[in-house]
Structure prediction request, 237 residues.
Amino acid sequence: MMIDWSRERILILAPHPDDETLGCGGLMRKAKEAGAEVYIQFMTVGDTADNSARGLSTADERYGEVKAVADFFDWDGWDFAFPGDRYHLKLDAVPRFELTNAIERHSPLSIETLRPTTVIAPHRTSYNQDHQVTAEAVHTALRPSNTRLRHHPRLVLAYEEAADQWRYDAAPSPNFFVELTEEQVEAKIEAMHLYGSQTHDHPHTRSDLTLRSLAVLRGMHSSVPYAEAYHMMRWLA
Prediction:
């Protein structure tokens, strides 16, 4: 199955800044090189305790990182649906109705407004609660219905992150692979460096070696040098 990425309008749902790059960094570079439109709907951001020397990354710092990554990938638009400490790492306390409505129709980058051809979201089996509820809300927002009344993207994918495997019921083997060049893999890693508050040395799930190794592994699984892997939820040919 070949996709002409130049014809795609891609909407990526990211629970937090960096998830879109960890899961789709190679695809974003490949698609933009082909001429696609790429939009990022972030769900939330806030001050975050971390393992850095300072012990904290601030929301303002994260916004600055997003702007740098947006310029790097040349995104066509990005937005935060639920910004602030009230929501950050607490999306599981927000009613599914509110999350789904933001994704479906109330956000500036909603499915109703943007009418994307491709939607990519986190996988439900992530250990992170914000990832889980984002995945479930996207699943609800993209429910089957009358196509004359609601927009239905042709392609719906769930992206993976190395950390998602930290579950006894981790996601099954992926069934959709996007071939990447070495330059596209390196672009993904370079973009993660722009998320300076979130990058770590190896061994860590967000280290350079982890990202490069996962691209090599998924490439081997699909008989190419490098790839990103996804779980396909819908494909309308």
Strands lie at 9-14, 37-42, 48-49, 56-57, 77-80, 118-122, 155-159, 176-180, 226-235. DSSP finds seven helices and nine strands in the chain.
